[in-house]
Design a protein that fits this description.
This protein has 416 residues and is of the alpha+beta class. The chain contains seven helices and 22 strands. The strands form four sheets. Strands 11, 14, 15, 16, 17, 18, 19, 20, 21 and 22 form a ten-stranded antiparallel β-sheet that branches.
Length: 416
């Protein structure tokens, strides 16, 4: 009996204790309620509208499609036109509108590129545009690796962008046929400028020095400036640019080589083939192999659509079986090296899409794959001493790059 009473008393005390704690907690909460958050002076909520320029749609329509009021869009575009040529807006360029929660205009930004940014603000009830000044920092970085499968994928696997592949290929395109000469295990090593805004990479600058090693040996390129112009030269001071290119397109294979006697695949007769057939997908761009003047452009029997270009020093190049010719390719018009003049097709007597590429020197056909071409420019005697010093300095910098601190690299770069 006493035990039962004692047990019940303990239970009642426990309940009473919990009740007291609950009352105390509620009392404290009542005395200290959570104060509502007050908006800090000058703070305002911002509503952001973003969009992008689309193909075939002007900026003002792209803004309206994103929900921006037409009258506001008109005011912004009118102001922006004072700083930007709106006829040159390109697909992919972005815009951002910031407004207050009451619809008040705050700011409009137009981003042509990471470096090229404009904004529209409102001053004294008037919309005005200004270019946003960006703090761009240039750095030099070393890129090197062994080729695995192909150059393009190798460089992208290093975390770089496709534009860097294009820049490297462009430098050596006169010396190396990257569609046929690249092998697994080749290696490359080069220093390139990179531009950053803060820690964000923006774009590539110049490749300062580059080396490529393959079965053909080592090719080197040094960017050298003299007399206000710059170019890439080999170790001997010869420009890497040649009078004409060996292959004026990106091709998949050589389907027929230069030969004084070849069985024609359609006519089934033996006849000379004074050119090289580069097989490539229909529509592949064909470039002018060098600076020159159009000598012929039109239909030419078995060649189909055909272009002949006359170059300096007695050279001419021919481009056959084209799908079509580029706008402005007419007899007497000038063309520049690597300008697109047409597209791969299969017109005329042809078994499939390819470019028949011909080269003539002083009226005689020569083999584009084996021809020896003079450099466009060689350094004069007075320039060679400076160039030799430059080559030694850049070679040493490339070879010792990894042993230098970031500060040393930046200082050396500033002194170049």
């Amino acid at each position: 009996m006493i035990s039962s009473v004692f047990t019940n008393s303990k239970a009642l005390l426990s309940i009473f204790f919990v009740f007291c704690l609950t009352v105390f907690a509620l009392h404290r909460i009542g005395r200290n309620p959570q104060a509502p958050r007050e908006e800090a002076p000058g703070e305002r909520r911002c509503i952001t509208t973003e969009g992008m320029v689309r193909k075939g749609k002007p900026l003002i329509l792209a803004m309206q499609s994103s929900g921006i009021d037409p009258s506001l869009a008109y005011e912004i575009v009118s102001a922006l036109g004072e700083s930007v040529d709106l006829r040159k807006c390109r697909p992919g360029e972005r815009f951002i509108l910031e407004e207050g929660d009451n619809g008040e205009f705050i700011e409009f930004r137009y981003v042509k590129s990471e470096k090229d940014v404009y904004k529209v603000v409102k001053e004294m009830e008037k919309y005005v545009s200004v270019k946003v000044e960006q703090a761009v920092q240039k750095r030099v970085e070393r890129i090197r690796a062994k080729v695995r499968q192909n150059l393009y994928d190798t460089i992208l696997c290093l975390g770089e962008r496709a534009g860097l592949v294009v820049d490297l290929v462009d430098i050596f395109s006169w010396e190396i046929d990257f569609a046929a000469d690249v092998r697994d295990g080749d290696d490359f090593d080069f220093l390139v400028e990179k531009e950053y805004i803060g820690e964000k990479f923006v774009e590539y600058g110049e490749i300062l020095v580059a080396k490529y090693r393959g079965y053909f040996g080592e090719k080197a390129a040094f960017l050298f400036e003299y007399g206000g112009s710059q170019d890439y030269y080999d170790v001997e001071g010869q420009s890497l640019r040649r009078a004409i290119m060996r292959a004026p397109l990106s091709y998949t294979r050589i389907s027929s080589k230069f030969s004084p006697k070849r069985l024609h695949p359609i006519l089934k007769v033996w006849r000379p083939h004074y050119g090289v057939d580069y097989a490539a997908p229909r529509g592949t761009p064909v470039m002018a192999a060098g600076d020159g003047v159009v000598k012929f452009a039109g239909w030419k029997g078995a060649y189909g659509y055909y272009i002949r270009v006359r170059h300096p020093n007695g050279y001419e190049t021919g481009y056959g079986h084209l799908l079509r010719m580029a706008k402005g390719i007419k007899v007497g018009n000038k063309v520049s090296v690597k300008q697109v003049i047409g597209w791969v097709g299969s017109t005329g007597l042809s078994t499939g899409p390819h470019l028949q590429y011909e080269v003539l020197c002083n009226g005689k056909y020569v083999n584009p794959l084996t021809m020896k071409l003079p450099a466009v420019r060689s350094l004069a005697k007075g320039e060679r001493a400076l160039f030799k010093e430059h080559v030694e300095r850049m070679t040493g910098l490339l070879e010792n790059w990894d042993s230098l601190s970031a500060a040393e690299r930046q200082w050396i770069y500033s002194e170049l």
